[in-house]
From TrEMBL:
It comes from the Bacteria. It comes from Nonomuraea marmarensis. Its EC number is 1.14.-.-. Belongs to the NtaA/SnaA/DszA monooxygenase family. CDD domains: Nitrilotriacetate_monoxgenase. This is NtaA/DmoA family FMN-dependent monooxygenase. InterPro entries: Diverse_substr_monoxygenases, Luciferase-like_dom, Luciferase-like_sf, NTA_MOA. Residues 25-387 form the Luciferase-like domain. One of its GO terms (molecular function) is monooxygenase activity. Keywords: Flavoprotein, FMN, Monooxygenase, Oxidoreductase. It is an enzyme of class 1 (oxidoreductase).
Length: 440
């Protein structure tokens, strides 16, 4: 039986978080991060996952309402969490477009040492000029260059991590600690995006390499994951889509000399639990309404239509006007490639189901992946994994920081009873939790 892998995503600044719930707490208070991380570790999860935002998003020139608290720097938070957890992996999203390999490799290697082998890096890229304005270059990479730079970035980082021999430092009772001869190999790299020449100043970490996570879904992104990543953060939520994505990515691995177990596919997943399936369905519907309020519904509409929609009633029908293709009213968010096609699709769904603007946005963006009693949700998760639609899931609760509490208390024990999930950690490092084997 395949074992289910689980990770916890801190519910950050986005439309999945229910701010209005009285149980919702701070997004930047360390106590919130600590609560969720300790809950995940109590549930024997593989890792704790933090997203990243490098600029506050804007809508019509004003700060987007979902970004009002910002996002703390991930590696700093994870370094603090390393001191209050023992086995839980610690994954940071860090942008490969706006960082430099030597500096980031040092920070990740340091986290791996501080956590005794639990560090992970979610490699992301951007071609967003709006975000680029916050950085010295003041610009951005063309979309075609994003993965070229990212691939070179990761390759160079691994060369830096590998430059120290595992037995580089020798302890001697009389003379103290010293380096063996040839313990640190110089790194000489001249590539398209980076030139580095020198010796790395952090010893090889307990894992050798921090775990690499990647989230791209384009063909280029899938190829990058097959060649480079240890975990891919997929967005495919249905069984059929998940199986197709799983098969496509796994079939690419042999050309890079990799086996299936060396890349774990873990889609993001939300959930709603109730004592019965009916109660859970009611709760899921209420969560959707809270996630997509009137203002948020119009904001989603404006991203597609490219124009100010504040005059429209969110509880009324879709506008008859067509999108403005050449204009953006939001900045810092992923832009929609073909607005006219998306608008036509939205109209068809709204007409077929008789949906208002808000109801349509709820239908398209606010759905839970798993809804039901703990028994139903445990069965659904296991079915996905056994059907090769995923290796596990990165769970995104709707509450900060207690949204994972019920899942750990009620669903995890059922997965353990079914023999599909560990009852305790068998290793100390994140690589061991994920069953990846030693770093190459």
């Amino acid at each position: 039986m395949k074992q289910v892998h689980l990770a916890a995503h801190f519910p950050g600044v986005n439309n999945t978080t229910v701010w209005a719930d009285p149980r919702s707490r701070s997004q930047i208070d360390f106590a919130s991060f600590q609560h969720l991380a300790r809950t995940a570790e109590r549930g024997k999860f593989d890792f704790f996952f933090l997203a990243e935002g490098l600029r506050l998003r804007e809508l019509k020139g004003r700060i987007h309402d979902l970004d009002v608290v910002g996002r703390p720097e991930a590696l700093t938070v994870l370094a603090a969490l390393a001191a209050v957890t023992e086995r839980l992996g610690l994954a940071a999203t860090v942008n490969a477009t706006f960082n430099e390999p030597y500096e980031l490799a040092r920070r990740l290697a340091t986290l791996d040492h501080l956590s005794q082998g639990r560090a992970a890096w979610n490699v992301v890229t951007t071609s967003d000029a709006f975000t680029g304005e916050n950085f010295r270059r003041g610009g951005y990479l063309d979309r075609s260059e994003r993965y070229t730079r990212a691939e070179e970035f990761v390759r160079l980082s691994r060369a830096l991590w590998d430059s120290w021999r595992p037995d580089a430092v020798l302890a001697d009772q009389e003379s103290g600690r010293f380096l063996r001869d040839g313990a640190i190999r110089p790194v000489r790299h001249r590539g398209r995006h980076f030139t580095v020449e020198g010796r790395f100043n952090v010893p090889r970490g307990p894992q050798g390499h921090p775990v690499i996570i990647q989230a791209g879904d384009s063909d280029e992104g899938r190829e990058f994951a097959a060649a480079t990543a240890d975990v891919i953060f997929s967005r495919h939520g249905t069984l059929e889509e998940g199986r197709a994505f799983y098969a496509d990515v796994k079939r690419r691995l042999p050309q890079y000399g990799r086996a299936s177990y060396q890349l774990k596919i873990m889609p993001a997943a939300t959930f709603a639990l109730g004592d019965t399936d009916a109660e859970a369905a009611e709760q899921a519907a209420e969560i959707r309404r809270l996630q997509v309020g009137p203002q948020t519904a119009l904001a989603f509409l404006e991203q597609i239509w490219g124009r100010d929609m504040s005059a429209y009633d969110p509880d009324g029908p879709l506008p008859e006007v067509e999108p403005v293709v050449e204009q953006d009213v939001s900045q810092g968010r992923v832009q929609v490639a073909d607005r006219l096609a998306v608008a036509a699709k939205w109209r068809a769904i709204a007409q077929e189901k008789g949906l208002s603007i808000r109801e349509l946005v709820i239908e398209l963006t606010g759905r839970q992946s798993f809804v039901g009693s703990p028994t139903t949700v445990a069965r659904q998760i296991e079915e996905f994994v056994q059907a090769d639609a995923a290796d596990g899931f990165i769970l995104v609760p709707h509450l900060t920081p207690g949204g994972l509490d019920d899942f750990v208390a009620k669903v995890v024990p059922l997965l353990q009873e079914r023999g599909a999930f560990r009852t305790d950690y068998e290793g100390a490092t994140l690589r061991e939790h994920l069953g990846l084997g030693a770093a190459a």
